[in-house]
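Hello,

Our lab assistant flagged a job as stuck in the queue for most of the afternoon. It eventually completed. Since we weren't sure the result was trustworthy after the delay, we are filing this so someone can double-check. Below is the sequence as submitted and the structure that was eventually returned. Let us know if re-running is recommended.
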Amino acid sequence: MKFGYTLLSEQTPARQLVTDLVAAEEAGFDYSVISDHYFPWLEEQGHSAYAWSVLGALAQATDRIPLMTFVTCPIMRYHPAVVAQKAATMGVLSDGRFTLGLGAGENLNEHVVGRGWPSVDVRHAMFAEAVEIIKELLAGGYVTYQGEHFRVDSAKLYDLPDEPVPVGIAASGGRSGRIAARYADALISDQPVAEVVQRFRAEAGGKPAYGQIPVAYGRDPDEAKKRAHATWKFSAPGWKVMAELPGPVNFEAATGTVRPEDVVENVPYGADIDDYLEAVGKWADAGFTHISFCQSGAGHQEEFRTWARAELLPALRERFG
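-- returned structure --
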């Protein structure tokens, strides 16, 4: 397995995202991912920098660590032809270290362009068309496309990396899994969905599967538990709810009764390394090849990296490497 470092744009100022990744590269993480949001999930998270500007800075500030969006939605806020251009430019700037992670999005970030929020069936149809456009443009040459949802008129990318930018696709169920199996160079999921991973890797020839674990490392377990709750309570209702809510205030209302105990069922916290190894084991058993860690709290990143370098990463590589 490979072990990554997550830059959560919703909790961290833009400049710190860059310095955090420079330090994560030095700490020995294998790769990195960054969220691409317009809003934070919760008002108290307080940030949501434009991920693509940050990515440009990351490409110049780091030397070896791979970069990846986790994930970008190409169906409303961004036109897929523009996403392809951004990804190709990142491939050039990073010397081939960039992977474009794509997903069908959520109302929270896409409603800002004033086009409403389509039903899930329509979103998946839009997403499939968007991926087709992006893949064609990243392959080079002129692209003209006439779909039900998108049109492209004689588009071409002039700045391309030496090798096409890999495309990862987020999937957690049958429909999204089929799109991933057809188009993706890698599977992405925020859940250890063994059936989806097994189907994807069987149909896609054993390509990698990327997952993510939210964590709340800290020497004081009570403080870490409270921090886990504050950072991750928004995810408790599950994706079918998360994809539909329009703003941070709605997530706050929807999670008002979520207890710390409800959150830490799925979020390792404190400093017991066995808890983290057990959490990764669930993803390894499901067939994931890459796992990134998203540490709770912008002010707690350095302590996590120090511990990861000294203890977590060596233990993970001994067990799962």
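-- support follow-up --
The delay was a queue issue, not a problem with the job. The result is valid. Residues 213 and 293 are 5 Å apart (CA to CA). The chain has a mean pLDDT of 97.
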